[in-house]
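hi! just following up on the protien thing from before. the input was this:
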Amino acid sequence: MEKKNVIKEKSFSFAIEVVSLYKVLVERKEFVLSKQLLRSGTSIGANVREAEHAQSKADFINKLSISLKEANETEYWIDLLFETKYLNQAEFENIKPKAVELLKLLTSIINTSKTK
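and the predicted 3d structure came back as:
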């Protein structure tokens, strides 16, 4: 039985939500910030996937550190889109906790990996 990879599943699910939100933002004629959100929000999971096949522990930590940076950037774009009224309260409250959860998970995994 294959071990469940929580960060892989959550980052992929988050990327799907980011793509859906991007489509909504484009319908609202917001093109610049939404593109930034799309890029950083989907990059989180892509780097998690790369980390799966890291060549070393250092490479693994590096890939997840990139994911962490992208998650942090994504949270910034979410906050900015909300404060500039491109995201409504419900949209913000749906996606923001998921971004924060990814930040916490990635930080935990990186810190644990560094101490092993």
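Residues 79 and 96 are 8 Å apart (CA to CA).
Residues 57-83 form the longest helix (27 residues).
cheers
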